[in-house]
Task: structure prediction
Amino acid sequence: MSPALIVLLVVFFGLMALSVPIAYCIGLGGMAALLVGDILPMQIFAQKTLGAVDSFTVLAVPFFIISGEIMLKGGIARRLIALADALVGRRAKGGMAYVTMLASAMFGAISGSAVATTTAIGGMMYPEMVRKNYSKPFAAAIGATGGSLGILIPPSIAAIIYGTSTNTSVGDLFMVGAVVGVIACVFYCLAAKVELNSEDIQLGSEPQSGIKEIIKTFKDAFLGLLAPVIILGGIYGGIFTPTEAAVVAIVYSFIVCKFIYKELSMKQFKEALVTSAITTGMVELLLGVATFFSYILSIEKVSTTINNAVSSGEIGKTGFLLLSIAILVILGMLMETIPIIVLVAPILVPVAATFGISSLQFGVLTVFTLSFGLFTPPFGMDVFVSTSYSQQPVMSVFKKCRWFFVFGVVLILIVAFVPGLYMWIVR
Result:
């Protein structure tokens, strides 16, 4: 291991231990390696950082963030919840939990963000679930878990970053991500059922929705449901690129929320732009410095070293997949999704290729495994978001995620070892 690589890792992990924001940990670690190793001029930092965000594909990220904010403030989330309630909310014990999960999946198909999904759906459903006698920690846990679908179901910001970092088709990532997202939604509903069956609580019951109510709520939510159809249909039909689809999503969401639903004021629109700008700044900074960090790792031939170690160890395809899952799960517990993808994917994807694993398959595994980390301790981002609106202790919410952990691990293994379950959509 070269002195530059040692300094890079020491500075990076040392700053993380001091709770320095992750973007600064990554950037300063890479710059320290340049100074000590004298391997490249310092100008390379600015070149690589700027080059990472100066991309037509990456331009889709801020546009999808803006469209998600508009739809959040324009009444679409509320209509999706009403539709989910009419479909599944009154048909079984724990119906409100299923509503939260289904509505999260539908809103994830609009926002592309786990935090936005947790805030929008979880925040709206929490008081309603508490009113209907669900335990407060469970109500917070189901919102956090449902929110994790936000980075899996397209338009997924995580998928865009992965595709950009590994030269993988973003459109194909969206398609296979949609299939896995639906499967994950079903798995997490089953986990909610198991958890509720273990609780000794009496849940309130309501009359089942009639066909007229279902049709009414469907009509009311139809324009919101149409958004992902336009986005995915346009991308996969070759009508427009993911970036152009993101612009279409902004125009569509603004027209629907402002002129049809008439729930988006100009003040709310300005707030959506400001919030989107802040979020975009954070994402772009992370992407830029993480790309620079990853470049330093490539200069130090870390990927080749790992590949040689894996080959000499004869761990095989199964061993590699299990090792990759372990790495992603651990990192997902400690770091944000975007820097993990930019740092790890360029290293592991070439190794995966030696075992006949396509970058598309590995991308779905990467994004889903990282989505699992959003509600796992110690730093599950979605859990902390849910505790902010529920005021529940973090550990009590983590405890109520126990069955989601079990079903999530099972699904990670299925995604890793049964690719035919979801890859059929792009064949």
